[in-house]
DNA sequence: GGCAAATTATATCGGCCCGATACATCCGGT
DNA sequence: ACCGGATGTATCGGGCCGATATAATTTGCC
């Protein structure tokens, strides 16, 4: 997931780790916060795999101006392979795209995602959330009254959240369909 | 976290891994699903640490009846140390207890948690969620109209969820306070 | 009675990610 | 002149996941 997000952000501009993390925060709105303990090793791995390369700025393009020498910053940029990889993930709508984390990140890049892939991700996510909702409904019904008060409260809250998310997804899907109809006119 | 949950469940009765996982599902209502890839290694580790021991049933107490010999089941039960550990975690209300996963699991054991610890966990969680909420509000305000439609939709949904959770927590806290007042009368 | 499918049951492996921790620099305020 | 807070990179141990393998037992069906 982190790899995917990094790939997406580096499409905007070359960046170093610290900046990447801030943009990551903005993009994902703190609903998902990657730590440096993931970020830096991931950057390393991606470099090793040839998805990104370290930019060798002689010093003149350094955004912070006053760049004289003391620069411990590693600025990374995408390689062709990195771009391909990003496009490949964007085109994917498999089951892994509907779990909590992955879904949010995929959605953050929806404007660059093909319309029919967006649709399949949205629908897959809805199915996934509906399953969770049914599980919670069953648990609440099964346990009835004799269940622990706090556990029931927890399940009630979970059920409400899933119900809201399904409604939200329905609206998004409807919007997508409307757009599709417009396009085909 | 898994360790905590296992400790809590084994207080009810000795159990083997598979059963433990089912009870885990019931308890957490699929808002959190631990995999076998976590469960079995954790069980091992806990045994190594002396928190649980493998029950050496000669065969007669095997719940499935018809137990003649072919039993590949490892039934675990708590040790004194295990019980102490559980009590220690129950009595804790530190920052780690307010992140998403931990909070839910702690709450699932609230009926065995001291009232003032419950209170501190609830309030800590509220503070945590409020922070997230403010982050999302800021992001939405900052970006205004020029932000990507999908990202905004994601943030909007996140904001709504955090607002609801804060309201929910307020109710729970009010309920706790009412109980506290009752008790002190 | 017999066979396939689902359930019960345990286990390992590679890999992602987190929290804690450690450094070092640069800038603004006092 | 100094200090705190942001900037910036990095590692380590550990928790958890998904995929995968294996095998016995139960259940459903013909």
Automatic annotation (TrEMBL), chains A, B:
Pfam families: PadR. Residues 6-87 form the Transcription regulator PadR N-terminal domain. The keyword rRNA-binding does not apply. GO terms for molecular function: DNA binding. Keywords: Coiled coil, DNA-binding. The keyword Plastid does not apply. Residues 119-179 form a coiled coil. It comes from the Bacteria. This is DNA-binding transcriptional regulator, PadR family. It comes from Goodfellowiella coeruleoviolacea.
């Amino acid at each position: 997931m982190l790899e995917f997000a990094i790939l997406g952000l580096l499409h905007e501009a070359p960046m170093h780790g610290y900046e990447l993390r801030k943009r990551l925060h903005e993009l994902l709105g703190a609903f998902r916060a990657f730590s440096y303990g993931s970020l830096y090793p991931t950057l390393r791995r991606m470099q090793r795999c040839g998805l990104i390369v370290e930019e060798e700025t002689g010093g003149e393009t350094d955004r912070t101006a006053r760049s004289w020498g003391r620069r411990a910053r590693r600025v990374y940029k995408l390689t062709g392979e990195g771009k391909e990889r990003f496009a490949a993930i964007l085109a994917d709508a498999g089951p892994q795209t509907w779990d909590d984390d992955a879904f949010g990140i995929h959605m953050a890049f929806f404007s660059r995602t093909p319309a029919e892939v967006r649709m399949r991700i949205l629908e897959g996510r809805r199915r996934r959330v509906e399953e969770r909702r049914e599980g919670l409904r069953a648990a609440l019904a099964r346990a009835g009254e004799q269940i622990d008060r706090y556990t029931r409260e927890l399940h009630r809250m979970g059920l409400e959240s899933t119900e809201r998310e399904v409604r939200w997804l329905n609206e998004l899907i409807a919007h997508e369909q409307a757009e599709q109809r417009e396009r085909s006119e």
